[in-house]
Structures are given as structure tokens and as C-alpha cells.
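FORM 7B: Structural annotation worksheet

SECTION A. Query
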Amino acid sequence: MSSRHGNKFQYHLLLDPFRAHLIDKIASKNGIKASALIREIVYDFLKRNMPIDIYSEAMQRDQETWAQSVKNRVAGRAKTEYQPPRLPEPIPGGETEAWNKIWEEIKEAQASRT
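SECTION B. Predicted structure
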């Protein structure tokens, strides 16, 4: 049984220890994680055992989904660019000279960041 993980499906897989060790050795030798190796083994199995048109369509749709998720991430980051907080205007009358100086320094610092 699988569970959703964003746009992907997650399977919980139990392997016997000695064969799992073989997976770890192969993955390490190839400089990849064991989960990436298992994923590639599964995809290769599907490619060999499914009609080519069905597998190709599934792979194309997966690539389109991935491309869309990248676009969504980029758009989301663009929306969250740094916006300095707006400072309240100083209260007229009664503020001290020190407050005015600090307030002007803060405004100048914010202006230099944008």
C-alpha cells in the first residue's frame, strides 16, 4: 500500500538484511543513495514489463508534473522576496532629538537594502 508524499507516492519496503546489504554496497559504489538505486530498479522493471506506449506516456506525464512543481516553487520564492517592515511615522511633537536621529538612521538603512 502506498501513501501520498506531495506529488509522489511513498512505499514502505522491507528487505532481508543480507540482500539489503547488497543494495547498500551497489549504491555506495555508484555514489547514490540506496533509495535512488531501488527507484531506478523499479523504473527499469516497469519499462521492461509494460507496453512501451503506456510506459512512455507515464514517464512523460511524470516529467510534466515535475516541471510544473519546479515552476510553482520558483513562483512561490519570487512572491516571498524580502520586504522591509514599514516604520510608523514619528509622533509629531514631544519626541526627543535622540529618537529622531535613530529613526532617520533606520530609514536610511532600509532604503540602502532595497
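SECTION C. Observations
Strands lie at 2-5, 8-11. The chain has four helices and two strands.

SECTION D. Sign-off
Analyst initials: ____
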